[in-house]
Every structure is written in C-alpha cells, then in structure tokens.
Amino acid sequence: MTSARRLEAREEIWPLANAFRISRGAKTAAQVIVAEISQGGVTGRGEAVPYARYDETVAGVRGQIEAMRSAIEDGLTRADLSLCLPAGAARNALDCALWDLEAKTTGVRAWTLAGLPDLNPVKTAFTLSLDTPEKMGEAARAAERRPLLKLKIGGADDLSAVEAVRAGAPRSRLIVDANEALDIDTLNRLAPDFERLGVKMIEQPLPAGDDDALVDYMGSVTLCADESLHTRAELAHCARLYQAINIKLDKTGGLTEALALREAAMARGLLIMAGCMVSTSLAMAPALIIAQGAEVVDLDGPLLLARDRAPGLEVVGSILNPPQPALWG
C-alpha cells in the first residue's frame, strides 16, 4: 500500500543584492512560496512567485495551495492538478513539487522523466533593472563580460538608457524588456535605433490587451511575448504577432504545461525564451528543462539575490549547471 502524503506550504523572503526596478515598480526582496509534498520518507519541493500583475498575492497563493491539501494528500496527479487549479503560481509550486517527488521516489532524474536524455548547462542573460541612463551605463560596465544583457525600460524616453548600456557593454548581446510600457507609435519610432544599437529582441513592448496593434509593427528586431502569453490557450493569437515567446513556469502553472507549450510553440516555428521571476535556484532548476535548446535563456533570478538557498545551482559566470538531486529533480 502506498504511504500517505503530506503537504506543507510556507512563505520565504529572499533579500535582493540591489533594488530591482521595472516599469511597474520596484522591489528589494523576492517573496516566494515553497510547497513541499512528502511521501515514503522523501520530499518533493516547488517554488513559485505570486505576482501582482496577475492579481496574485502571497496570502492568496498560499490559500490556493492549502485548499488542495486533501486532494494532494489523497494522491492527486499532475494531470489532475491542471483540472483543479488555473495556471499561475499556486499550480506551479505544486506541479514542480510533484515532479521532484516522482524523481526522488523513482530515482530517475526529472529531465529523463520529461523525455530528455541529458540536462546541459545553459548560458543565462543578466538583467539590468530600470534606472537613470548613467546608472544603467555603470551597471552595464560592471557586467560587460556577460554575453547577454537584458535591460528594463519604462517608456519612450529610455533610448538614452539603451545607448548607455551599449556603450558600457559593447560586446554583449542586448535584449530590451519594456514590460508593456510602450505604444505602437513609440515602438515603431524606437525600433530603428534599437536595431542600430544591436538589440536582438524586444520583450513585451505593448500592454497585453493592445497586442493586435503589432500588425502595424515596422521594425526588424524580434518581438517576444511575455505578459501576453501564459499557456497554450493564448498561443495561436500570439503566433500571429510575435516571433518568440517567453515561457515562465509561474505563468504556465508549472513544468507540465510549460513542456506542452514549448512543443506547440516550436511546431509553429516560434523562438523560445526560458524566463523566470526573481526567485531562488529552486525555481530555476525545473526551468532549466525548458531552457534546453532555447534561443534565449533568462534564468538569472539567483544572480540578483543577496544570497541564494543552499544547496543552489552551481553558477560559473553566466553558466548555470544542472541541479543536484538535493536541490530539485
């Protein structure tokens, strides 16, 4: 007879090395929820970040997880989970905990369970948060050895910040992330300068509800959907307007849907960006599976923290190595 399961959930706060600013505001710490599912002497863990942009709160996400206690402890599967909770942070924490539990119970690494022969190291972007052009230029100089920088912008006047970053890191590839802060006219005005400055991708330029305006986009820099795309439900619409999608486990509601979304997006010829919220190595570990073969990897959450959890991912410069079983999977 299968031994009983036990579910626990808790909030953790991880201070950041520096304030992290985007167009919607700033934060000085990562507030995460960790779900733990224990059975037969082993424990599977999953970490998620409640996100106000998606009407999530720490208390609300923890409440969603607690409401699943009976079902989880009665043996709910990952497939069943998708029928019980909407995509979001709560489902992500539980889904990833179930993946980890299965890997530890069977002795088979999670990427093998996902159908991958190996999990290779990946090279992550490093994010420069929104600030004055002078400070963003300084941050770029400090990070100029990193091969890929992602810089946050907040509006039409931020071209000078992009120029400062390019001057500070002349050899780095650049991604610009507007977090919905532009309109189509501003995007079209800025696009030639972005191309001149060597920007390779523009992430979520317009508000999610204004996506249809992108049919009038006149630039050549690749557009990547983030806030506009959570699961396969939005894929067909986004595929008409974007050339790439950012897959984040907190949006998809876990690794299970993320894998399905990745496969469906690749079948449509879309480029894959593996992204994250600001969080610890426990959240990055399952995302490394999505990052395999991705055009862009943006899993720098632990690099932005004052300290990471232990054990965490082994990080060498911008290289993230596969997790040890003690961390996840």
Question: What's the mean pLDDT score?
Answer: 95
Q: How many individual domains?
A: 2
Q: Which CATH C-level class of the largest domain is it?
A: Alpha Beta
CATH architecture of the largest domain, by name, is Alpha-Beta Barrel
Q: In percent terms, what proportion of residues is strand?
A: 15-25%
* Apparent shape: globular
Indicate the radius of gyration in whole angstroms: 19 Å
The CATH superfamily of the largest domain turns out to be: Enolase-like C-terminal domain
How many DSSP-defined strands?
Answer: 14
Distance between the termini: 24 Å
Describe, in plain words, how this protein is organized in 3D.
- The chain has 329 residues and is α/β, with parallel strands linked by helices.
- A hairpin with a 2-residue loop joins β1 and β2.
- The protein has 12 helices and 14 strands.
- It has 2 domains: 5-107, Enolase-like, domain 1 (2-Layer Sandwich), CATH 3.30.390.10; 122-320, Enolase-like C-terminal domain (TIM Barrel), CATH 3.20.20.120.
- The model has no long low-confidence stretch (mean pLDDT 95).
- The chain has an 8-stranded parallel beta sheet. A 3-stranded antiparallel beta sheet has the order 1-2-3.
